[in-house]
Amino acid sequence: MRVVCLISGGGSNLQALLDWQSKGLLGDAKIVGVISNNAGVYGLERAKNANISTSVLSHHDYPDRLQFDRKLIELIDYYRPDLVVLAGFMRVLTSEFVSYYANRLINVHPSLLPKHKGLHTHRRAIEAGDTTSGATVHWVTEELDSGNIIRQVEVPIQTDDSEDSLQRRVLEAEHTLYPSVIRDLSLGLISC
Ligand code: GRF
């Protein structure tokens, strides 16, 4: 299963996938390319250190979302992916892009969806008085953070948690959740 990862930043989830891959734990999945919409981000270094092909496609070079997404499709398809993995890709995708990769596009979101879609999930979970947060891997559909849930992991919220401390623990949980889902997809243990 050929996997392309899209990133925008530090890429700690990408690192987790690369680590599982280098240890032979990623099933039949193989990360064949990493694409960032931001040049100079650390996630690109992580990919290069693992000898994975990288590309940068800056959204600033395109007049609108649709033209950017069309170029992005071209670039992704160069890698002939079976699965496109959003790993901290901070772009809203057009419906054209999402339907083009229907059932081949997944995301990890730092909350127990359907709770706290969108940004600032940890702050909102604490403010809401939630006792449990977590992370969700889901299929990507047109509506933001609303596609079918593949798997979730729960992370208890402690009474003294700050937004930062909760974010750290949820991110750590993502680092096992995401690779395990991709492994299981590659082994045919999950379908859409
Ligand atoms: C994570 O919080 C993930 O849930 C969200 O974007 C962040 C990516 O972090 N979708 P990283 O770049 O993988 O460190």
Order of helices and strands: EHEHEHEHEHEEH
| Strand runs, count | 7
Radius of gyration equals 16 Å
Q: Please state how the strands of the largest beta sheet are arranged side by side.
A: 3-2-1-4-5-6-7
Q: Name the overall outline.
A: globular
> For this structure, what is the CATH class?
Alpha Beta
Number of helices: 6
Q: Return the CATH topology.
A: Rossmann fold
Tell me the name of the CATH homologous superfamily.
Formyl transferase, N-terminal domain
The first-to-last residue Cα distance is 15 Å
Share of β-strand residues: 15-25%
Q: What is the share of helical residues?
A: 25-40%
**Bound heterogens, unique:** 5-O-phosphono-beta-D-ribofuranosylamine
Q: What class do helices, strands and sheet pairing give? A: alpha/beta
Low-confidence runs: none
Largest sheet: 7 strands, mixed
Mean pLDDT: 97
Q: Quaternary status of these chains? A: single chain
Number of domains: 1
The CATH architecture classification is 3-Layer(aba) Sandwich
Q: What can you tell me about this protein's structure?
A:
The chain has 6 helices and 7 strands, in the order E-H-E-H-E-H-E-H-E-H-E-E-H. It has one domain: Rossmann fold, CATH 3.40.50. The two termini are about 15 Å apart. With about 190 residues, the chain is of the alpha/beta class. The site of 5-O-phosphono-beta-D-ribofuranosylamine has 12 residues, from helix 1, strand 5 and helix 6.
Set out the fold topology.
Elements (H helix, E strand, L loop, with lengths): L1 E6 L4 H11 L7 E7 L5 H8 L4 E3 L8 H14 L4 E4 L8 H6 L4 E5 L11 H7 L4 E8 L9 E8 L6 H24 L6
Parallel strand pairs: 1-2, 1-4, 2-3, 4-5
Antiparallel strand pairs: 5-6, 6-7
Helix pairs in contact: 1-6
